Amino acid sequence: MKNMKKYILVPFLSLLVLFNTGCDDYLDVNNNVDSPDYVEDYIYLSGIIQTYQDIAYDLTYVFLPMTSMWSTTNTYGYASHFYPKNSDTGQLIWRTVYWNQGMNLENMIKQAEEAGHWRLAGIGYAIKAFGWDLLTKIYVDLPLKQAFDSERLHFDYDYQPDIYEAVRAWAYKAIECLEKEDNTLYYSKISANDWIYKGDAAKWKKFAYSVIVLNLASLSNKTDFVSKYADELIEAAGKAMQTSDDDAMVEVAGGSGSVAYAGYNNFWGTQRGNLGTTYFQHDYMVQLMTGTIPKYGADSKRVKQDPIVNSYYRYELLDQQYITDTLVNQTGHYDPRVAVKLSTTDDPQYTSIDNIESVKAYKYYGGNSNTARANPGATVTTPQLYGRIETVKNSTTTLPNDGIGRWLFRDNAPYVLMTAAEIKFCLAEAYWKKGDKASAYQAFKDGVRQDLNFTVKPLYPGSSGVIGGGDKITKAAYSKAADEYYAGPYVEGLGEANLTLSHIMMQKFVALYPFGAIEAWTDQRKYHYDIQYTGDYPKKGDGWDATRLITTKSDDDPTKVFKGFYLGATKDIEFRNVAFNIDNDGSPSYRIRPRYNSEYVWNVEGLSKLSPIPGTEPNYQCSIPWFAYPGEYPAN
Q1: Which end of the chain is less packed: N or C, by CB atoms within 10 Å?
Q2: Dihedral sign of CA atoms 217, 218, 220, 224 in order
Q3: In the chain, where are the structural domains located?
Q4: Cα-atom radius of gyration of the chain, to the nearest Å?
Q5: Which residues fall within 8 angstroms of residue 154, CB to CB, at 6 or more apart?
Q6: Distances in whole angstroms, Cα of residue 61 to Cα of each of 55, 357, 404, 405, 517
Q7: 14-264 CATH
């Protein structure tokens, strides 16, 4: 990959020990003006926030392919729910939280508290809560209590229940600090270093409450969710992000090939060349967003040319679609998010991007599996994420090119951390579990509206007649179609009586594309990938068998949450029937193994003590997280 960061591979905590011993013998670092050991608290903030770009690395290589949001032709293995041995691929978020933010964040919080800089301390605690919530959802059990003990070379692991409580405690501490009277004259010290909210304490409070919502929402399938967690989630959601104006996005100052460092441009932009020939939208995303989920299974064979629908789509469709039925050309049936979130090769010269009827006619294709670009039988190859078949060419080359990209795949697009839309869908799910369908329906509608609003903000229309990149719809055309869609049969016209959990979770899945793939993976895992099993959770012989193929609920099963979704090792499903790696022994992945060059080089003893599957076992990635168990961890 071009312009990827080069790291010296070191244990995530051991350097703290090295830097804290033996210095006084030959150097007093406190008097070294070129490398001081103390800086003012606010100076940490900018660098801490900028490390969030690293999330895009792991989203790209791991979570987007694992969730069937993207397909890929890379060989890392995560798309097939396996992991590359002896590699740090997919473990950059581990490094980000423990090392890049790590002691920088701890020092910022400590110094801010000692100085009574409560706004800065509150921001620090909010960032800490968000990072550790993300960390535990990915890697599950973690060194927590001993994490920053500089006297240690080895670290004991803490289990997820303790980590979840710590996350919420830090979030509440953030709120407490942000509510304290703070008479500090910050001037621009915070606003100039806060690339998310410019020091706005009210929005950081909403951010902290939103972390609490996301943390609790992952527990929604536990047997004690309603009695123990739902009310706290609902209360926090009332104080969390409410509209797309509250969305947490990291400003990116790049936007061209002339910036001082390539890393100033967005990781997904054209200048950095990280997406061009390897990553493509998955056909499951296309099916969801075009209303073309097919009938899968041996009985239908799926291949039927239906003259009623557009000729380019050749499969018999599921009787009920859940996001849209774009192939029905009626007002309110078209979801314009598809023209922004997904890519198409249609209208290459951008001549009709302001004509909504022309935009509605765009055709979309996706890779038919998690590990392929191909779409067998399609007349067009799955396009690049920028909307052309050809290799990506950026704005520094002659036309035709992809310019600076489009939407979130643009050199100066922000990195998205969290949105009001996903908070509303978490709220809808909680109300649904409590049996309050009226409140669930209102939160569901609010979630769709906020995602419609979020989607249009980074929209970057191309120029008419110029093959030079950009989105293939104008903001005016999008907004008109968005209002029609909201008033149509899939949102306001759906009706409370017709709302299902699938509507809530599938709309949330669309809202999380692509920035929120980790949360989407969390949802898939807590519902056990819709695997057909009996008992508390799936296992070999009850969900998958010796062939290493998985039995998935059929789409007509009312308990199946994600309609049309089938893991890549699903039995009897076309394009989804390749067994997972032998080390998985039939199971999908439920966690990512921790960073190789810290844990498997320096902390094997801690890993080996974990249960129910020790971290040193070849199938550790299949160990089910606590949040996905109906109750507590099993004994074995």
Answers
A1: C
A2: negative
A3: 14-264, 279-512
A4: 24
A5: 602, 603, 605, 606
A6: 10, 36, 22, 20, 11
A7: 1.25.40.390
Range 395-420 average pLDDT: 96
pLDDT (tens digit per residue) in 348-376: 999 999 999 999 999 999 998 999 888 76
* Contact yes or no for 491/485 (Cβ under 8 A): yes
| Whether residue 594 has a cis bond before it, omega within 30° of 0 | no
Angle between helices 420-434 and 201-217 (to 10 degrees): 40
CA atoms within 13 A on the CB side of 18: 6
Q: What is the pLDDT of residues 91-126, one digit of tens each?
A: 999 999 999 999 999 999 999 999 999 999 999 999
pLDDT at 405: 97
Compute the average pLDDT of residues 202-208.
98
Q: Which helix (H) or strand (E) holds 37?
A: none
DSSP for 130-196?
HHHHHHHHHH-SB--TTTT-TT-SS---B-HHHHHHHHHHHHHHHHHHHHS------TTTTTTT-TT
Percentage of residues of the chain with pLDDT beyond 90: 80
Pairing of strands 415-418, 248-250: antiparallel
Environment class of 437 (CB within 10 Å of its CB; exposed 0-12, middle 13-18, buried 19+): middle
| Arithmetic mean of pLDDT over the chain | 91
Query: How many other CB atoms are there within 10 angstroms of residue 235's CB atom?
Result: 13
Query: Could you give the maximum distance between any two Cα atoms of the chain, in Å?
Result: 83
CA distance 531 to 544: 9
Rounded-to-integer distance, Cα 468 and Cα 478, Å: 20
Q: Decide: 532 and 543 in contact? Cβ < 8 Å.
A: yes
Q: Show the tokens assigned to 367.
A: 């890779």
d(CA 425, CA 443) in angstroms, rounded, equals 6
Q: Please, where are the H alpha helices in 182-296?
A: 201-217, 230-237, 283-290
Q: List the structure tokens of 230.
A: 């739902």
Classify residue 393 by burial, with Cβ atoms within 10 Å: 0-12, 13-18, 19+: buried
